[in-house]
Amino acid sequence: MILQLTVALPVLVAALLAAAGRWLPRLAVDVAALATATAVTALTALTLARSGRDPQVVWLGGWGPGTGVGIPLAADPLAAALACTAAALTLAALAFSWRYFTEIQAIFHALVLLFLASMCAFTYTGDLFDAFVFFELMSVVAFALTGYRSEEPATVHGALNFGIVQSIGAYLTLAGIALVYGRTGQLGLAAAGRHLTGTGTGTGSGEADALVTAAFVLICTGYLVKAAAVPFHFWLADAHAVAPTPVCVLFSGVMVELGVYGVARTYWAVFPGLVPLRAIAVLGAAAALLGAVMCVLQHHVKRLLAYSTISHAGLLLVGVAAATPDALAGTAYHLAGHAGVKGALFLGAGALLNRHETVDARELRGRGRGMPVTGVTFLTGALCLAGLPPSGLFAGHAVTEHAALAIGWWWYTPLSVAASALTAGAVLRVWLVVWRRAPEPGAPEPGGPGSSAPEDGHEDPETPVTLRSLPWTMLAPGIVLLAAGLLLGLTPGGPVAAAAEAFASRDAYAGLVLDGHVAHPPPHLPPADPWTLPGLAGSAVTLLLAAAVAAASVHRAPRRLRTGRLPGRAAAGTAARLRALHSGHIGDYAAWLTAGVAVLALLTARF
Question: How confident is the model at residue 150 (pLDDT cuts 50, 70, 90)?
Fold first, then answer.
């Protein structure tokens, strides 16, 4: 009953709040939402604690395996951990919202709880079509939350871009599911996987024919849109810039990661060995680099953090594409650490927005000195993004880099170091500007031309009342999330390696869901150990490079870049082209999505 209750409880409370919330006092609405999120967090934590030795499988409606219509919910360790992460971030977002929003309707709490239910259901479901249903429920709710401040034109624009791009991806995913059903007659992940790999689809040598390849490409397109892989990523920064800050915690902390999870679960449960993952690796690497460069170019703190999410999601996709249990273990560390750190950073951005009514770093110069806790959050968060031990990102980088080298992917280490250093350096620059009064590049001189004009990146406040001092309900969630992200690298590597081994085995997943058999890891399975000399050395190099990026970006002279020597002009021209590429026009984004599907299909096809 625990898995059903995890999904049903927030749906039931959301329905009650939507129906009766307008007549309830604000305190009652907040308490109901927080109590529900707390209960779901406890349920997912209990499920996670049991998942290693006794993973739960429930067939809804009493229809068991072999009927062809049964819908399983399966909580293996990695799925349970992701559901627990989603619940914890939702609890943090709701706690922060209690005092952050002075005027808010109960429909906001109802949408957040419905979002939580859809995330948990998506991680647990073992059915392709129901994964699509829950994924799209998540998208619809996310679209509504993005456009919550619908009185602002920029909010409507960002929400429409988000909704249209996500909808196109959803149609393609549904088409891919239809192809799998047409070939196998099954919608269950485990049942379809057994059919595809057990009947010798294609040549009979473990290769897929064109239909199976097309199904994988189409299904993954929707997930890659959510994961913000290049060139499906354009919606993300627009949505983060206009969505309420507590909602951004859920978007960057877990929703994007669920897209990565969808690709991984679909591949290993249905298509293992049938299709290559080089397309996922290429698009992930492109996202890691482009997101990192765009992150450095931002002054708007929420956009900066959004591009950082694109970059780290790209690294997660490359870890999945390595297609080994060791790389998956590193990806799990990285995902959990990134969720905690990025959630804390967005809550810090919300604190800045509430106090100073802007998140433009140029307008915030030196104004953060009265917010020491938020300053520590940004400094520590930046260092964690660079792989500060013992953070989850440090463990993720170290374990994944070792796994990538083992399969000959020598290029992953410089990619990981570069992306992490650039994103961490951009966040560290914000700390230097806002808390150390360093000059922000591009800031107008006081009294000079343009000094009175509103700067690009200025955002209207999300609440009409600013707080002179932040209450503990706004400080504690960020502190807890940051502490979790910082300490996740201390998680024992044995259980993580065993969880990754089970996740990456189609037979283990099918045995669990269809036969009720719990697979046990090999007796001498090596643990996922980040505490190695190469791992520590890579962390030290990344931290030094991040400090160099922050210092260089703070002290560079934009005017000199435009008028100086050829390298400066080339850098300025490249930056201008990248900004123009992210135009905000939905037609451009749809065109890039179409091109991305073509690239994905071309790189996935076997020749």
Answer: low
- Which token pair is 208? 């897929």
* Cβ count within 10 A of residue 146: 28
- Sheet strands (E) in 6-158: 56-60, 71-75
Question: Which residues, at least 6 apart from 332, have a Cβ–Cβ distance to it below 8 Å?
Answer: 78, 81, 396, 496, 499, 500
Residue 379's identity, in one-letter code, is L
Please state, in angstroms and rounded to a whole number, the distance separating the CA atoms of residues 73 and 57: 6
DSSP string, 126-137: -BHHHHHHHHHH
* Nearest of 373, 85, 106 to residue 250 by alpha carbon: 85
How far is the C-alpha of 206 from the C-alpha of 63, rounded, in Å?
31
What is residue 607's predicted lDDT score, i.e. its pLDDT? 59
Q: Give the sign of the dihedral formed by CA 578, CA 582, CA 588, CA 593.
A: positive
206 secondary structure, DSSP code: S
Token pair for residue 270?
Answer: 């249905």
The pLDDT of residue 199 is 47
In the structure encoding, which two tokens stand for residue 275, read together?
């299709």
Separation CA 376–CA 372 (nearest Å) = 6
> For the CA atoms of the chain, what is the radius of gyration?
23
Residue 173 to residue 83: CA distance in whole angstroms: 22
CB within 8 A of 492, min separation 6: which ones?
527
At 491, list the tokens.
């998680």
Sign of CA dihedral 249, 255, 257, 261: positive
Q: Which residue has the higher pLDDT, 83 or 514?
A: 83
Residue 578 is predicted with a pLDDT of 82
- The helix/strand/coil state of 577 is helix
The 10s digit of each residue's pLDDT in 499-545 is: 999 999 999 999 999 888 887 878 778 899 999 999 999 999 999 99
Q: Locate tokens 């107008």: which residue?
A: 444
Q: Which residues pair with 125 in a beta bridge?
A: 73
Query: Rounded CA gap, 116 and 108, in Å?
Result: 12
Q: What distances in angstroms separate CA 108 from CA 33, 115, 138, 370, 459, one per listed residue?
A: 10, 11, 14, 30, 20
Angle between helices 106-124 and 2-20 (to 10 degrees): 160
Name the band, by pLDDT with cuts 50, 70 and 90, for residue 200: very low
Name residue 127's beta-bridge partners: 188
Interhelix angle for 26-51 vs 77-100, to 10°? 160
Q: Which helix (H) or strand (E) holds 48?
A: helix 26-51
Q: Is the pTM of this model over 0.70?
A: yes
The pLDDT, as a whole number, for residue 108 is 92
For residues 426 and 438, what is the distance between their CA atoms, to the nearest angstrom? 13
